[in-house]
Structure formats: structure tokens, C-alpha cells
Write a structure and sequence with these properties.
The chain is α+β, with helices and mostly antiparallel strands and 345 residues long. Helices cover 59% and strands 8% of the residues. It has helices at residues 12-34, 41-108, 124-128, 131-134, 139-196, 199-216, 229-239, 258-268, 277-280, and strands spanning 285-287, 298-301, 307-313, 316-319, 328-331, 339-344. It is elongated and about 90 Å long.
């Protein structure tokens, strides 16, 4: 006959441990099923680095655009000085021919007057200081000589200024190359970091950017009137560029950086403003309060004044924000850039 023993009962303490362990397991299981997964700190860091590099690239772009604008002005100044020097040289050649005719006539009549040798002297200014020599020339001849020397000095000064401007132009071109290399380096590094993200993460980032662009089409700008006719015309031109891509150094009409958009838009309104955001910050009447802004006013952003856009009404900015983005409307508060002041033309 089989033996049937009663199983040994667990002690109360052991039962308590099992119960607590089971409860904890259930709680952890429930929490894991209901809570979102914790964000990957590495992923967040890479995204922040990409955004920072894009911001640094836009700041460097404004410096590049400033150097490019300066180079354009210097090129014109050098060209004008060289043209003026060429014209002055033509005038000197004509005066030299006149003096040569005087020398030839005097030589044929019995000898070359020492005073006529002024035009051949290596130091004509000191020669002219001798009044006794000047007395041997007629008034007309003396006036021609004075005119010649005056024109010669002016030519030397023009050539010296042209040389200085040419040196400045060469230095500015060197800065341009340095800025371009800096921008391309930051964009390349940002792209490398972007490529390090998974396909899902890149798609998520692109979708987020697309949502911001799409929301731009539905923004409520209110019914505020522009403060000036110029601002209204420039703002209207900028609105027609919504959806165009950000490209560093671009001034339109189909791609823009931030100050490229604002300078292009005012150009369409018949107004010429400086190329960079820093220079645009000082072109008109400063508006320190956001509540006093009107559509068409420029908005200067960041403490280094490296970003600019148009106030669009209802707390919105119309701008070309960064690489990978489009010209769009965006909340000033959510742009991630501190407002410095507005500018009204």
C-alpha cells in the first residue's frame, strides 16, 4: 500500500518573501509594458551635435557673406582707381608731348634751355624750387610744367591707394577661403554624424523637420498691418519664397541663407540694404519690444546678431533658418534663438 505523506507547509516568513517577490515582478512587468522606453543618451547627444554644427555653420555663413560683400566693394574701388590712373597717365603723356615740343624747338634754335630739362629730371620738384630757372620759361611753358608735376604726384598717390586696396582685397579673399573651408567642414561633420544615425532615426528627424515646414503653411498671422510701405513690399516678396531651401551664401531667387532672403526681398521692393544680419541690424529704426513689431519689420536674433528674418505677425518669424530647412514661418518663442531687437525701414 502506497504511503501518502502530507506535504510540508512553508513557513510564514518564506511565504512573505515569495509574495513580495511576485508582487515586485508583476509591478516591474506592468511598468515595462506601459512606460515608453528610456531615450538613448548617445542618440540625443548626436542630434544635439548636428544642430549645434548647423548653427555654427549659419554663423560662419554670415561672416563669409560679410567678407564677400567687402571683397566686392574693394574690387570696384581697385578697378575705379586703376581706371582713373590710366586716364591720368594719358593726360601726362599728352603734357609730356607738349614739353617735348618745347625742348625740340629750343634745341633747334641754339641749345636746350636748362629749365626745359625739368621734365627729364629725376627730381623735378627740387628743380622747380629754383625760381631763377623758372624765369627762363614763358608763363605758358611754366604752367604746363606745373600741371605736369601736379598730375604726376596725383598719379603716384592713386597708384599707392590702388596698391593698398589691392592688398586689402587679397587679404579679404584669403578670409573668404578660410570661411568657406570652415563652413564646409562643419556641414561635412554634421552630415557624417547624421549618417551615423540609424535609418529609423534619420527618418524621424526628417519627419520632424517636415512637420515644422508643413505647419508653416497653416500658421495664423493675424490681421496686423505693416508699419511701412517698404516693409510690406519686402515682406510680400519674402512670402512668395516660402518652401525654398536654405543654402549657405545664397541670395535667391530659388535658395537663400537668412540674410540672403531679407536682402533679396528688400531688393524686390526697390530698397538696397547690407548683405549680412549684423549690418542689417543697424539700417533702420530699432524696435526693442516684440509687442511693438509690425509685419515687414526685420527681426535680429542671437546675441552675436547672426540671424535675421521678417516679423510675420502673431509672434511668428518668416525666415530661412538653417541647413536642411526651408524658408518658413515659425514661432519666435520656439525658434531656439533669442530675440535681440527689430528693425523698421
Amino acid at each position: 500500500m502506497a504511503s501518502h505523506r502530507r506535504p510540508k507547509q512553508p513557513t510564514p516568513a518564506y511565504t512573505g518573501v515569495l509574495t513580495a517577490t511576485a508582487a515586485a515582478a508583476v509591478a516591474l512587468s506592468t511598468q515595462s509594458a506601459s512606460a515608453d522606453p528610456l531615450p538613448d543618451p548617445n542618440k540625443k547627444g548626436v542630434q544635439a551635435q548636428i544642430d549645434r554644427l548647423y548653427e555654427e555653420a549659419t554663423q560662419a555663413t554670415e561672416k563669409y557673406s560679410g567678407a564677400k560683400e567687402k571683397a566686392g566693394k574693394l574690387e570696384k574701388q581697385v578697378g575705379d582707381l586703376q581706371d582713373a590712373a590710366a586716364r591720368r597717365q594719358d593726360g601726362l603723356n599728352e603734357l609730356r608731348n607738349q614739353l617735348g615740343s618745347v625742348a625740340t624747338a629750343q634745341y633747334r634754335s641754339g641749345g636746350l634751355d636748362p629749365s626745359v630739362q625739368l621734365m627729364l629730371s629725376t627730381d623735378p620738384d627740387s628743380y622747380l624750387d629754383k625760381a631763377s630757372d623758372m624765369e627762363r620759361l614763358s608763363d605758358r611753358q611754366a604752367e604746363t610744367l606745373k600741371q605736369y608735376l601736379s598730375q604726376q604726384r596725383a598719379l603716384q598717390q592713386q597708384r599707392a591707394r590702388a596698391g593698398e586696396q589691392l592688398k586689402a582685397l587679397q587679404e579679404t579673399r584669403k578670409e573668404l577661403g578660410s570661411r568657406k573651408k570652415e563652413i564646409q567642414g562643419k556641414l561635412a561633420k554634421a552630415q557624417s554624424l547624421l549618417n551615423s544615425l540609424s535609418a529609423e532615426e534619420r527618418a524621424e528627424r526628417a519627419a520632424k523637420e517636415e512637420r515644422v515646414n508643413r505647419d508653416s503653411d497653416r500658421v495664423d498671422l493675424g490681421n496686423e498691418a505693416s508699419a511701412s510701405q517698404r516693409g510690406a513690399a519686402a515682406f510680400a516678396a519674402a512670402k512668395s519664397r516660402v518652401g525654398m531651401p536654405y543654402v549657405w551664401g545664397a541670395t535667391g531667387p530659388n535658395s537663400f541663407d537668412c540674410s540672403g532672403l531679407t536682402s533679396w526681398a528688400f531688393q524686390q521692393a526697390g530698397v538696397s540694404i547690407p548683405r549680412t544680419s549684423q549690418a542689417q541690424a543697424d539700417v533702420g529704426t530699432r524696435i526693442n519690444s516684440q509687442s511693438a513689431l509690425k509685419p515687414g519689420d526685420l527681426i535680429i536674433m542671437r546675441t552675436d546678431l547672426s540671424h535675421v528674418g521678417f516679423y510675420a505677425g502673431n509672434g511668428q518669424i518668416l525666415h530661412s533658418p538653417k541647413p536642411g530647412a526651408q524658408v518658413r514661418y515659425e514661432s519666435i518663442a520656439r525658434s531656439g534663438m533669442p530675440f535681440m531687437w527689430g528693425v523698421r525701414l
